[in-house]
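Note to self: keep these together.
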Amino acid sequence: MNTTIYNVTSKSEAHGLNSGRYQGMIGRFEYKWHYRDIDNVNKLKALLREGQYSWPGGYPVIAYTSDGGCLCNDCIRDNLTSVIWSIKNEVNDGWRVSGLDVFYSEEDNGDICCDHCGKKWGDI
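Structure:
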């Protein structure tokens, strides 16, 4: 079967591709995406492609690990092999990214910093 891949920007646009004459074609609207729960490597890669700031608003994104720690995007990129290995093997060693949240302000989130590099989210 010959499958064409389209780069689409929204789920509604992807829904249009999966109906009618575009039935069976793959829409890549999740190529860059901020998932709240990260349970596989593809979601982690989509998080890194989307960047460290949320849209709309431009607030920094906080990645949480399975042991309750926080990692910034720079530390995830620098230690990507460890993070991917931990997700694939479901190991809770401090590198397994399991979710993310948005850092709105220090008043709402408190004094949160990256557990690896020590950078404060208010300074990112």
